[in-house]
């Protein structure tokens, strides 16, 4: 049975909803703002988190308040269909991808609420047992060729592993030093990003440096063109994708079949598209690792929960949020990989009741 079939007909009663703004100063240049969606009904509450990156879009949502006509009797599927017809942004959005990010906030909150109203957990619904979650820490070295903050992080957390963002400032000395740590699982080339602060144009020399310098690492989101494709062609079995993946159709449109993919649930927008993606990859032997979007609230636990059910042992970019917020100098005592299973007894949450 398709995974989505296990949840699509769950009854969902919504009486009201409210919004909760969260924010954290990650650096002097970047204050992360998210919005938690609280759906309420039948004495229960479901939560989801809008990870839209534009602070302006987030603050506009919070200022407008809960104006959407969500109240009523639904199924999880009919509620998803309702969201397709509603204007989820007061104005905008700043980027088209943000539509799916916001939709995922409402869909994940609806999934949590429907499961709670039914008195079952997500694991019960999909017939899977949560497992311990392997994670990596994702970061960009801000001042290459300096190695900082990698040595400091490894001194505090010696078993830590990384998903790094190579840039045009990297050189052979830096790559050799990073390779020497043996802690790099994924190199995210950011070549599939367009119009964002993290765009990294395709650079054949950088791609050669990375592919040869980290012979066992996954190579994520290259910008494949006439100059870069010949460089990476011998390494195609290590190429993986993240930014372009929003649906099964996107997987099928890739230039070649991947061995693994990075699934960020918020990119899929709907529970159905995400669960269909899980099934598609399972049927074809494509492994999955999870990705995060700087969640500050329950959204982080929810992606850890999904990883625990569908891809627990891969290099999941779902580290505890403190590793992102304090990425250059995280406090001591944070959870280490793998995270032990922490599913809620009912609903779709992690590490809470």
Polypeptide structure, described:
There is one protein chain. This protein is α/β, with parallel strands linked by helices and 353 residues long. The protein has two domains: 3-125, Enolase-like, N-terminal domain (Enolase-like, domain 1, 2-Layer Sandwich), CATH 3.30.390; 128-325, Enolase-like C-terminal domain (TIM Barrel). The chain is built from 13 helices and twelve strands. The protein has helices at residues 55-64, 76-85, 97-118, 122-126, 150-156, 172-181, 204-213, 229-232, 248-252, 265-268, 271-284, 298-310, 322-325, and strands spanning 11-14, 16-27, 30-41, 44-50, 72-75, 137-139, 162-164, 184-188, 218-220, 239-240, 260-263, 287-290. Strands 6-7-8-9-10 form a five-stranded parallel β-sheet, covered by helices on one side. α2 (76-85) runs antiparallel to α3 (97-118). The mean pLDDT is 95.
List the helices and strands and how they pair.
Elements: E1 11-14, E2 16-27, E3 30-41, E4 44-50, H1 55-64, E5 72-75, H2 76-85, H3 97-118, H4 122-126, E6 137-139, H5 150-156, E7 162-164, H6 172-181, E8 184-188, H7 204-213, E9 218-220, H8 229-232, E10 239-240, H9 248-252, E11 260-263, H10 265-268, H11 271-284, E12 287-290, H12 298-310, H13 322-325
Parallel strand pairs: 6-7, 7-8, 8-9, 9-10, 11-12
Antiparallel strand pairs: 1-5, 2-3, 3-4
């Amino acid at each position: 049975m398709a995974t989505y079939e296990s949840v699509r007909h769950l009854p969902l009663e919504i009486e009201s909803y409210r919004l909760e703004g969260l924010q954290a100063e990650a650096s002097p240049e970047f204050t992360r703002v998210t919005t938690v969606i609280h759906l309420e009904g039948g004495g229960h509450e479901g939560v989801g988190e809008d990870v839209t990156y534009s602070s302006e879009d987030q603050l506009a949502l919070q200022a407008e308040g809960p104006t959407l006509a969500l109240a009523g009797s639904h199924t999880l599927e009919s509620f998803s269909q309702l969201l397709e017809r509603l204007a989820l942004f007061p104005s905008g959005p700043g980027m088209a991808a943000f539509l799916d990010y916001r939709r995922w906030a409402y869909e994940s909150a609806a999934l949590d609420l429907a499961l709670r109203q039914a008195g079952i957990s997500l694991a019960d619904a999909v017939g899977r047992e949560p497992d311990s979650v392997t994670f990596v820490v994702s970061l960009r070295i801000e001042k290459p060729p300096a190695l900082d903050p990698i040595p400091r992080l490894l001194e505090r957390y010696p078993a830590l592993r990384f998903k790094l963002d190579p840039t045009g400032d990297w050189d052979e000395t830096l790559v050799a030093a990073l390779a020497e740590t043996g802690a790099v699982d994924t190199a995210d080339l950011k070549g599939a990003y367009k119009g964002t602060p993290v765009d990294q144009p395709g650079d054949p020399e950088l791609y050669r440096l990375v592919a040869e310098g980290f012979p066992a690492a996954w190579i994520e989101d290259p910008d494949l063109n006439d100059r870069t494709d010949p460089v990476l062609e011998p390494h195609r079995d290590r190429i993986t994708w993240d930014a372009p993946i929003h649906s099964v159709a996107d997987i099928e449109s890739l230039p070649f079949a991947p061995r693994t993919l990075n699934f960020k649930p918020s990119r899929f927008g709907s529970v159905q598209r995400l669960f269909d993606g899980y099934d598609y990859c399972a049927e074809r032997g494509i492994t999955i690792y999870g990705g995060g979007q700087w969640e500050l609230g329950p959204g982080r636990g929810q992606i850890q929960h999904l990883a625990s059910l569908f891809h627990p042992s891969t290099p999941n970019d779902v580290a505890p949020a403190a590793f992102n917020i304090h990425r250059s100098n995280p406090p001591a005592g944070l959870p280490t990989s793998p995270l032990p299973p922490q599913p809620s007894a009912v609903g779709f949450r992690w590490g809470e009741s």
